[in-house]
Amino acid sequence: MPGSLHIITLVKWVPDAQLERQIGEDRRLIRSEGILGELDEHPLEAALQIKEQYDTEVRVSALTMGPPGASAAVKKALQIGADDGFHLTDEALQAADIWTTSVALTAAINFVRSTASDSDFLVLTGMASEDGETAAVPAQVAARLGIPALTQATDVVLKDGQLDVDRISGRRFQKVSAPLPAVVAVTDQANEPRYPNFRAIMKAKKKPTTTFSLAELGLTHYAVESKVSLLAAEPRPEREAGEIIHDDGAAGQKTVEFLSKEGLL
Amino acid sequence: MTQVLVFFDRVDAHLTPAQAELLTHADALGETVVVTGSLPAQGAAPLAVKGVTGVLTGDGPIYAPNPALAELVATAAGELYPDLILGSDTPDTVDTLSQAAVSLNAGLITGATGVTGSGAATKSVLAGSWRTTAQISEDGPLLATLRPNTASQQVVPAAEPEVVELEVKASSVVRILEESELPDSGRPNLTEASTVVAFGRGVDGDVTLVEQLADELGAAVGASRVATDAGWIDHSAQVGQTGVTVSPQLYISVGISGAIHQKAGMQTSGTIVAINKDEDAPVFEIADFGVAGDLNDVLPQMISELRRRKG
Ligand SMILES: Cc1cc2nc3c(=O)[nH]c(=O)nc-3n(C[C@H](O)[C@H](O)[C@H](O)COP(=O)(O)OP(=O)(O)OC[C@H]3O[C@@H](n4cnc5c(N)ncnc54)[C@H](O)[C@@H]3O)c2cc1C
Ligand SMILES: Nc1ncnc2c1ncn2[C@@H]1O[C@H](COP(=O)(O)O)[C@@H](O)[C@H]1O
Question: Stretch A142-147: mean pLDDT, rounded?
Fold first, then answer.
């Protein structure tokens, strides 16, 4: 279907940041439970807005790489509004570093693309995963695909195959443009993600999900060997609560006294 | 001797504190060459710093987010065979080093708090609740971005380094249509300030008292996401998981509940003082000194006490 657009959103299944997160004895993050990363709802929302506004046919696929439980993230993405889901899962991807993640996700993106006839494509990602927090995967995926990476996007507009992206880089604001295909990493400033309603949840049950392993991507375990490994991990000692006073009309003075005593003035 | 390639996306007339800090890190590790997308009109003069032995640029300026910046770093690395390629932990630098790591077939660690010449890096993960040490598994180079406030900024002046142009040109695929810089608030830079006064929903749109307190203390002003989303201050002031991480000597939290996402950006501060009218606010769990009270009462008391002490 020439002229059509295929948006692939990368969504990660992460341990809920509201609960206590732990790194185990094996120096791996404990991933027994998780959610679709909240920051990855923003690229999904951006994709759905493009789909609603773009004048050709748009297909939105959600792709995740993670353990079997990560299918929950795909399911949530389908409920929010993605058309189909893809889940790459393989034992060899445990403890994947940035390098490995981007190798595997790039191959997976090519796999997902091969399920559509020659349409334009756009990869949308979150600004950072809530567990890895490296913010490096989008640019590495773009480099491997040989296409531009536009990160820190606060607004994404697509017109006639041309992307206009507002981005913030430190104290510098930019409006940049690039042709498709591209990778755009969307921040939490870009939009307000929608919640799936009952209808959408019902509809999602009929949407297709494809689960695949490295072998189906033609990747050997050697091809996904991490470049970086964790030597040590320790919890930071928790801060302890100090003195709490109630304002009786002089709390401000007492606070300044505290600062003065601590040598902070 | 460890060879360090330091990447700056741009060099302006004066080094930024983060750039000075990175050069201090690099100088402690070995011999430094700087590779940069652009130099100011006076050339390499701002890089006339002890430890910097040379400067590499492209053929004409290359500005972020142009993908040629990564090609520039990879080309520089192809000439020098560095053990380490370092940059500041800013989005543009993370992008460039991430892309360069692909062409160099090399490991990458972002947001590090320290690196060694042998390719190990420490960092704080899971919203600052864990500390990890990671190591590249093969012979280098290791590419890493370093967080601010992880070294002193003691740059020592030295002779101006020589500049060599590499044959890398800006790509035309990404075009910058508009660019502007946020106006200077006149206050210290948030990530580098020794004191930060941060406010949240509790100020209910009125930042006057917070700004007065900050100015009495010579502090930078930060905010919670609720406060930046409401437009009470620019997004660049947001402290937390999706804003900046700060680690000042003193962090004063005003009318902020202390959600995990906010804590992620400030819990490594030296001393935390919290003012919140809800004595059960989670911020009190990590505060060294807390005031349960209305900020509209407590801040004026603090301001007048500070003024009284100054006499
Ligand atoms: C993926 C994700 C990323 C996020 N990233 C960030 C981030 O980077 N930074 C961030 O800050 N948040 C972030 N958030 C939002 C975060 O979860 C909280 O919602 C936010 O920090 C709350 O801001 P607040 O404390 O100002 O508001 P509230 O939680 O509403 O707290 C306001 C506080 O002010 C107190 N108060 C009210 N009136 C007064 C008064 N007169 N005097 C004294 N105290 C008063 C109240 O008791 C209350 O404790 C993120 C959320 C998500 C999901
Ligand atoms: N395992 C994964 N599966 C799907 N998407 C991912 C994965 N890891 C990273 N991403 C995407 O890349 C973005 C940045 O992740 P990171 O570089 O880990 O901070 C995330 O917001 C996701 O969109």
Answer: 98
- CA distance readout (Å), B91 to A13, A235, B234, B276: 23, 26, 18, 33
| ipTM computed for the complex | 0.95
Residues of chain B with CATH 3.40.50.1220: 195-310
What number of C-beta contacts closer than 8 Å exist between A and B? Answer: 261
Count of residues making up chain A: 265
The two tokens of residue B221 are: 């002003």
- The three-class DSSP label of residue B18 is helix
Cβ neighbours, 10 Å, residue B204: 14
Give pLDDT tens digits for B90-125: 999 999 999 999 999 999 999 999 999 999 999 988
Q: Do A177 and B267 touch (CB under 8 A)?
A: no
Beta bridge partners of A5: A58, A120
Give residue-wise pLDDT tens across range A40-65.
999 999 999 999 999 889 999 999 99
Residue A152, token pair as written in the block: 């820190």
| Range list for CATH 3.40.50.620 in chain B | 3-165
- Say yes or no for a CB contact (<8 Å) between A172 and B289: no
The residues near B105 (Cβ < 8 Å, ≥ 6 apart) are none
Whether residue A2 has pLDDT greater than 70 = no
CA A256, CA B275: separation in Å to the nearest integer? 13
Which of B226, B230, B196, B200 has the alpha carbon at shortest distance from B213?
A: B196
Domain B3-165: give its CATH superfamily. Answer: HUPs (3.40.50.620)
Q: Please work out, in degrees rounded to the nearest 5, the angle formed at the alpha carbon of residue A107 by the alpha carbons of A103 and A111.
A: 165
Question: How are the residues of chain B apportioned to helix, strand and coil, as percentages rounded to the nearest 5?
Answer: 30, 30, 45
Fold of B195-310: Rossmann fold (3.40.50)
Ligand 1 pocket at CB < 6 A? A 38-39, 188; B 200-202, 224-227, 238-243, 255-257, 259, 261-262, 265, 275-278, 281, 294-296
Task: Tell me the mean pLDDT in the region A218-233.
Answer: 94
The one-character DSSP state at A27 is S
Spatial separation of the C-alpha atoms in residues A33 and A51, rounded to whole Å: 31
Contact A176 B267 (CB under 8 A): no
Picking from B12, B16, B99 by the largest number of A CB atoms within 10 A of its own CB, the best residue to mutate is B99
What backbone phi and psi angles, to 5 degrees, belong to B275? -125, 120
